[in-house]
Write a structure and sequence with these properties.
The protein is α/β, with parallel strands linked by helices and 278 residues long. Helix content is 33%, strand content 24%. The chain has one domain (36-276): Rossmann fold.
Length: 278
């Protein structure tokens, strides 16, 4: 476990090549931050939110979202009206999200605390993450008991890995499989209909660690799945370029290599969750 955290630390502490791009070709709308009615409970890690319309329910699906602020998952939960949400904001870099879940029992303890403080039972459990938040999902799924309890996963433009050589190329880069193996297992289960897995990515190329395009391609190649061109408008002004998948596993590729393109995907959380919960 310590070795994995050191690898993750290396991924996130490597300096990213700054992008000179400022994107003006497409609109970049943003959701409005709102103070929504409902139950909020501060947990040891994260904040639990139960929309007011679900207050009388004794059992609820639970979405745990990592990175991107606390209010966006609340907006998604309130819009859907189908689930409670725990939002976790731990700082910058995937290691900041991985460390709280490095201990095998930490995720189960988080769920117990949420149930005890709310007086409700939660299930099924859904994990969602944007950008660096994917580090938390990786750690959680590595524990077999957690893996069994998690029904669905959504990774929003954040599945990264190290390069074996420490740098990209030449041509097809070799990625550190240890960073991706648990997601490959989840993808295989989704293809078989046992789980649900949605991965989205942009065209952003960090340079010092593998892009979300490269990691998505890594998963697809090991599952013998091919992308299909799919030029259509996406949520929040996104421009979709491709899609791939089988069973309950789906990868969606979007245009864009600038920071606004990255944030567009975060603000698409309510739409992506709607697709995931179909």
């Amino acid at each position: 476990m310590l070795a994995l955290l050191l690898v993750l630390e290396a991924v996130v502490t490597a300096q990213q090549n700054p992008s000179p791009m400022v994107e003006h070709a497409r609109p970049h709308p943003r959701l409005k931050e709102e103070s929504l009615a409902g139950l909020r409970e501060k947990l040891s890690t994260g904040t639990l939110f139960i929309p007011a319309k679900l207050a009388r329910r004794t059992s609820l699906p639970l979405v745990l979202h990592f990175h991107g602020g606390t209010w966006l998952p609340e907006v998604a939960a309130n819009t859907s009206g189908r689930f409670a949400a725990i939002a976790v904001q731990s700082g910058s870099g995937s290691a900041a999200y991985a460390k709280p879940f490095a201990a095998a029992g930490s995720f189960a303890a988080m769920l117990r605390e949420a149930e005890q403080k709310s007086g409700k039972r939660f299930g099924p459990v859904i994990l969602t993450a944007w950008s660096a938040g994917c580090g938390a999902v990786r750690e959680i799924l590595r524990v077999p008991e957690n893996y069994a309890r998690v029904d669905k996963v959504l990774l929003i433009d954040g599945l990264h890995a190290s390069y074996v050589s420490g740098k990209p190329g030449p041509l097809e880069s070799e990625l550190v499989a240890e960073n991706l193996d648990i997601f490959l297992q989840f993808a295989r289960d989704a293809v078989g209909g046992r789980k649900t897995f949605l991965v989205t990515h942009s065209e952003i190329f960090p340079g010092t660690f593998a892009s979300t395009t490269e990691t998505a391609d890594w998963l697809l190649s090991r599952l013998s799945l091919r992308r299909r061109p799919a030029l259509r408008k996406g949520p929040m002004g996104l421009q979709q370029l491709s899609e791939a998948g089988s069973g309950r596993f789906r990868v969606i590729g979007y245009a864009g290599n600038s920071a606004p393109d990255h944030v567009d995907q975060l603000h698409s959380l309510p739409v992506f969750l709607k697709w995931l919960l179909r």
